[in-house]
Amino acid sequence: MPLHAVLAFWAVAAVLIAIPGPDWAFAINAGLRRHIAAAAGGIVLGYLAMTLVAAAGLGLLIATTPTALAVLTVAGALYLVWLGSATLSHPADITRPGAPSTSTDRRTLLQGATVSGLNPKALLIFVALLPQFTSTHAPWPIPVQLAVLGLVFTLTCGAFYLVLSAAATQLLHAGPAAARTVSRISGASMILLGTALILERFIT
Question: What pTM value is reported for the model?
Fold first, then answer.
């Protein structure tokens, strides 16, 4: 597919990724807990799964099936609310130094994959945005073009949230109070975003 189409999509995707959302809140909170790589890796896994879904044509089926989209939205929203509530109950504790345990890293990886994989707005981006940058005249089949664009989005997400999570870790130097405050803000943000997704689904 044409390189200019890939670059044009990358520019649009970068802007969308930079807009704060569920992934932001999760990456920041994970960074405060020193789970930088696990958080970014989990988000990447979720979007890799979404790339496969979109390339296989299942994304359009889900997006155009009200019941399936509603189930996905509610599941993702409830998970965000649960994760945010857990964060508020147990904000990042930086008073105990040391590397995170392997089991905690694994849990963070799974949480990141769930946050991004159940993001209904991201699914709509894959379904509505990606096809606009494909071409029936390109030598590659449409599913392959969708897969390439999905990988561009996914890798950009991975790099962005790796940097964001690492930047959040720098707050550890500001002291326990600042880190706990930011952790609580990220938890509250997840709750608000989850609630907004539910309200948007059932009110509109």
Answer: 0.83
